Amino acid sequence: MGGIIMSRHDRAMERLDALLAGFAAQEPLPGLAVGIVAPDGVFARGYGIRDAGTGEPVDEHTLFHLASVSKPLVATAVMQLAEQGRLNLDAPASDCVPYFKLADGREREVTIRDLLSHTSGMPDEEDFQWDSPEDDEGSLERYVRALAARSLDRNPGEEHAYSNIGFELLGDVIAKVSGMSFEAYMREHVLRPAGMEESTFLLAEVPASQLAAPHILGVPEGRYGPQKSLVFPYHRAHGPSSTLYMNAVDSCRLMLAYLKPEQAAEGKGLLEEGSQGEMWGTRVGLGYGDWLDGIALGWFTGAYQGRRAVSHTGQDTGFRSYLVLLPEAGLGVTLMMNGDYVGLKVLMKGILDLLLGEGTGEVQRNLAHYLTGIALSGGIDAAWDEYRQILHDGVERYAVSADDFSYIAYPLEENGYAGEALQVLELGLRLFPESEHLRERLRDSVQKMNP
C-alpha cells in the first residue's frame, strides 16, 4: 500500500491531493500525513517535512505520535477481552488489578465501562512527565499503584469528565488480564491482526529513520512557524492514553478493520459486530456538535452531513491527530501532524465534504496564522494593510476568529517568545477591538513581562 491507490477517476484524486498540498503549504506546519478509506479505494500520502532540522520529507510510511487517538485502540482491546469472557465491563477495575487503590477508598466504585466512557469520576493527569521519561515494563504498574494518593473528583457514572488516568488504568487491566505487557498485547491482538506491521506503542521499536519529530510554535531565526521540540512526548506509563506510533498506510489498514472487515488483513474485523456496535453506542451526550456530540466507549460519537460518525482527536507536545469514521458511508479519514499548534478540524471537514461530493475542494486559510507571520516579519502595520486588502478582495477564503490570536499567543509565550506573543495580541486587538478576551490577555501578558 503506497502513495495513492484508488479507482475513482483521476480528477477527483487530483482535487484531493491539491486540497491537502494546499493546506500543508498555506499553514505554518512542518509535516502532515493522511490516510483515507473510501468506498472504492484507499489513499495514503505525506506532505511537508518530518524534521525541521534536517528537512527530510514526510511520506506514507513516516510514523507519528498519535496522542489520544491511541484510546480507540485501547477500547478495542478491552472489548476483545470482554468478548472472551475474561473481564466484565460492569465490574470494578480492581477485580482485574487488585492493587488499584484510591485515597478516598472508593476504588470499588470505578467500573471498566465508566473508565472507557470517561464517566468514572477519576481525575485527569496534569503532568505527563515527558521531560523525565521511563521506558521499563514496570512503569505502568508503578503508575497505577501510585494512584493510591489520588481521589475521585466526582461520583462515578454521573457525568463525563475526560481522564487520561482512566486509560492508563485500562492499559494495566489489559496487561494483567492477558498476562502480557500492555504493548505486547496491543501488538499481537490489535495492530498485527489489522495488518499494521509498522505501528507500535513502544518508542524503542520505532526506527529513527521513520519517526516524525515533534514541533512547537516559535520564531526560530526570525521565521514564524515550526520549531523542533527539545521534549519528545513519551513515557511508558502513558502508553495506553497516548503513545501509539502509526503512519498513513497503517491508518488505512486500521480503518479497514473497522469499516470493511472482509477487506482487512485477516479477512475479518478486530471485534464481533455486536461488540463493535456496543463500543460505538453513545453513553453520554456532550453537545459539541459534528463527530464530537457524544461519548461512547473510547470513541466520540455524532453525525456529519447527516451520516453517523465516530471519532477521536489527539494532541501532545509537538503533535496533533484526528480520526473520523462514517461507518454507513464506508468512509474514514486519519490526519497526523508533527506540530501541535495548527487546528485540523477545518481540514477534516474539507476532506469529508470533497469525498461526500458536497465540497469545493478548498480549505479556508487561518487568518490569524497568516497575519501573524506578516506582523512578526514586517510589523503590525504591514499585517493591518494586508488585512484591509483581504477585506477588499473577499474574506471568504479565510477562517476568521478573534480567539485564534489568543491561541497563537499562548504557545509563543510558553515557548520563550513573550515579546512576539504581545505583538500577536496587539494585532488581534487591532482587528477585533471589541474583544474583551483579547484585551484581558494582553493586559495579563504585559503584567507578566513587567511584574
Structural account:
50% of the residues are buried. The longest helix is centred in the first third of the chain and has 17 residues, at 10-26. It is built from 15 helices and 15 strands. Helices cover 37% and strands 15% of the residues. Strands 1-3-2-13-12-11-10-9-8 form a 9-stranded antiparallel sheet, with helices on both faces. Strands 4-7 form a two-stranded antiparallel ribbon. The protein has a two-stranded antiparallel ribbon with strand order 5-6. Helix 2 runs parallel beside helix 5 (164-178), helix 12 runs parallel beside helix 14 and helix 13 (403-414) packs parallel to helix 15. It has helices at residues 10-26, 71-83, 112-116, 139-145, 164-178, 182-191, 239-242, 248-259, 273-279, 345-355, 367-378, 380-393, 403-414, 418-431, 436-449, and strands spanning 4-6, 31-38, 41-48, 64-65, 215-218, 225-228, 245-246, 284-285, 294-295, 300-304, 307-316, 319-326, 331-337, 365-366, 398-399. It folds into 2 domains: 1-363, DD-peptidase/beta-lactamase superfamily (Beta-lactamase); 365-449, Serine Threonine Protein Phosphatase 5, Tetratricopeptide repeat (Alpha Horseshoe). A hairpin with a 2-residue loop joins strand 2 and strand 3. Residues 1-9 have low confidence and may be disordered. The chain is of the alpha+beta class.
